[in-house]
Design a protein that fits this description.
Helix content of chain A: 25-40%
Strand content of chain B: 15-25%
CATH class of chain A: Alpha Beta
Largest sheet of chain B: 11 strands, mixed
Structural class of chain B: alpha+beta
Shape of chain A: globular
Number of domains of chain B: 2
CATH superfamily of chain A: P-loop containing nucleotide triphosphate hydrolases
Low-confidence stretches of chain A: none
Largest interface: A-B, 44 and 28 residues
Order of helices and strands of chain A: EEEHEEHEHHHEHEHEHH
Helix content of chain B: 40-55%
Mean pLDDT of chain A: 89
Order of helices and strands of chain B: HHEHHEEHEEEEHEEEEHEHEHHHHHHH
Strand order of the largest sheet of chain A: 6-7-8-3-9
Low-confidence stretches of chain B: none
Distance between the termini of chain B: 35 Å
Oligomer: heterodimer
Chain lengths: 230, 400
């Protein structure tokens, strides 16, 4: 990655699935997209518009049909699955709408696992991350023993535990009430800023989108939606 | 470290299933080791125990019956032989030592056997070991005195100085009490041989017990023989068994018992096969337990994959989890084994006087746990393949 090149650069990215009826269904067709290091960008999009698939492609969870996803100078689409897993573990933090905490693990262990597959587990750093999100007194608690707002904070700590260059947030406030959503969003943005991580957040909630200076319409990015529009 | 954390948390998360499955492994593994050790040890012990004698001379009949009766004190006597027969073989140049015994009485089910004092003085029941008294002294061959084997003394609650009435026959019947009384003069130290469960009295005392046939008052039930050389045994075998037709010369004692075990080896094989099948079924239980929980695990697997865990790591985690269940079960299997063998050993001790050594080393204690753990690990391969194939995106619902 040269000093001037963006953190994330996407070109000609396509993804389709075969429906149960046997019909090929195009989900994502993004000709071009980029994100600078430390940038915070919100994507506006309705449910079912392919936002999650787009994030999964960026994270390397899904393999693209065509196109390139360059993250920190590495072309994700040219890598094998093992290398994509490694790249994701080292560079990406993922915050899910349903938090996706591991129920059999304590808060501390959830955060430890956030860095386990990258640089390795660092107990002191995990504790510090949980203290940063206000859960220093809940280290040994299990997710089921926490409120939804607290669970989301654990998810934020986990996503940032591996010092990611990029944090992907998929409707991160979708399961929270207004007050918790506001606090959680502020926390995500602050911690990303503190850790120097870029943030790409997708949401359909105007309240969330309104807090971002930079908001882009996913329908503008995704040619599939444009082609489907009346 | 990460792999260990994932495996340990998964075991804890499915704790009930883990414990039940490990328990079934413990039962199966314990059973397998018990069957094996009891089989091997009883065969080795019964073919090695000869109470220090090479051969038994008795009435014409089965060699096995003769050995079981005279050495193991289990079977009925095939009949008597004349005292002259004893005196003849005692004088035979090929015979180092000949000790007569007479059976036919009991005390509350424990056999009373008549013999001569040299049985306790001149016989090594195992290399370097002779019978010794734990308490008291040997009986006077002309008095109504008795020396008790340690196990019989313990079970009958008799001690030196106690007096008892013998009962006629090998099976206890309170109506068959003899008029004579015998005084306990000594208790033998434990030898872990059939001698321990016998009440020993002078040969003459048993021969002349009230109610016994006066015409057989000098007969003996068998003669226990030590030979000067193995070739002497084959010579006497020829003389008594092939050329003669009045007496039976049972030689060698170990081979006769080995023959018994070879005749019932099919039973051993069936028992061992059942134990193997139980072990296999319990290992398949590991497969079923983990496989059935895979639906609930898919989300966790998808989350771990999203965090960067590779497919091979999660495949390994499931195999390791199955292996751990097997290892946990086999640790507990030693407790099951200990209890099972203790019970079986107690029964064998009560029936034969022979003590099995439950915790003496047997290779099965290594290969059974190792085999069972490997088998459990192998049973983890199918659910591990399912974990390997888990679709991450599909299991990270909801999709927006």
């Amino acid at each position: 990655m040269t000093p001037s090149s963006p953190l994330l650069r996407i070109a000609g990215l396509r993804k389709s699935f075969v429906s149960p009826e046997g019909e090929r269904k195009h989900i994502v067709n993004v000709p071009e997209f980029s994100l600078e290091a430390g940038q915070q960008l919100a994507l506006r999009g309705e449910s079912g518009s392919g936002k999650t698939t787009f994030l999964h492609l960026i994270a390397g969870i899904l393999a693209a049909d065509a196109g390139t996803v360059q993250l920190a100078g590495c072309d994700m689409t040219a890598l094998g699955e093992h290398a994509r897993d490694r790249l994701r573990a080292e560079n990406i933090g993922y915050i899910f709408q349903t938090f996706n905490l591991l129920q059999g693990y304590s808060c501390l262990e959830n955060v430890l696992l956030g860095m386990a597959f990258g640089a390795g587990m660092d107990r002191a750093h995990s504790k510090a991350m949980l203290e940063r999100v206000g859960l220093g007194h809940r280290l040994r608690h299990f997710p089921r023993q926490l409120s939804t707002g607290q669970q989301q904070r654990v998810a934020v700590a986990r996503a940032l535990a591996n010092h990611p260059k990029l944090v992907l947030a998929d409707e991160p406030t979708g399961n929270l009430d207004h007050k918790n959503a506001h606090e959680s969003l502020a926390l995500i943005r602050e911690t990303c800023r503190e850790n120097g991580a870029a943030l790409l957040l997708v949401s359909h909630d105007p309240g969330v989108l309104g807090t971002f200076k930079e908001v882009r319409d996913f329908a503008e990015l995704n040619q599939v939606l444009q082609e489907a529009a009346p | 470290m990460t792999l260990a954390l994932i495996v340990l948390r998964s075991l804890r998360q499915h704790l009930f299933s883990t414990l039940i499955t490990a328990f079934s492994i413990a039962l199966a593994g314990g059973l397998l080791m018990s069957v094996w050790v009891v089989k091997v040890q009883s065969q080795a012990t019964f073919t090695q125990v000869n109470a220090g004698f090479d051969a038994v001379l008795g009435a014409r009949g089965s060699k096995l019956q003769l050995v079981l009766n005279a050495i193991f004190h289990l079977e009925a006597s095939p009949g008597n032989l004349a005292f002259a027969d004893y005196e003849f073989i005692k004088q035979h140049p090929a015979v180092k030592l000949a000790v007569p015994i007479a059976v036919g009485d009991n005390l509350r089910g424990y056999r009373i056997v008549g013999t001569m004092p040299e049985f306790f003085r001149d016989v090594e029941y195992a290399p370097g070991k002779t019978f010794s008294l734990r308490a008291g002294q040997l009986f006077n061959p002309t008095a109504k005195e008795a020396v008790l084997g340690s196990f019989a003394a313990e079970k009958l609650g008799l001690k030196v100085g106690d007096i008892f009435h013998p009962f006629h026959g090998l099976v206890y019947d309170e109506k068959n009490q003899h008029a004579e009384t015998y005084t306990v003069t000594g208790i033998l130290a434990s030898s872990n041989t059939p001698v321990d469960k016998v009440i020993w009295i002078p040969l003459h005392g048993l021969q002349t017990m009230s109610g016994h046939d006066p015409k057989a008052a000098t007969d003996v039930s068998a003669v226990l023989i030590q030979l000067r050389s193995p070739t002497a045994g084959f010579m006497l075998d020829m003389m008594y068994n092939k050329q003669g037709n009045r007496l039976t010369f049972a030689y060698p004692v170990g081979a006769i018992m080995a023959d018994l075990f070879s005749k019932i080896s099919w039973f051993d094989q069936v028992l061992t096969l059942v134990a193997y099948l139980v072990a296999l079924v319990s290992a398949i239980g590991v497969l079923v337990a983990i496989y059935n929980s895979m639906a609930a695990r898919r989300r966790d697997i998808a989350i771990l994959r999203a965090l960067g865990a590779g497919r091979m790591m999660l495949f390994g985690a499931v195999v390791l989890e199955a292996t751990m269940i097997g290892a946990l079960g086999m640790v507990a299997a030693f407790a099951v084994y200990g209890v099972t063998v203790a019970v079986v050993a107690a029964v064998i001790r009560a029936q034969t006087g022979i003590l099995l050594e439950a915790w003496s080393y047997n290779p099965v204690m290594l290969w059974a746990p190792a085999g069972m753990i490997v088998l459990c690990g192998a049973c983890g391969l199918l659910p591990a393949w399912k974990a390997y194939r888990t679709d991450v995106a599909e299991n990270l619902a909801p999709i927006s």
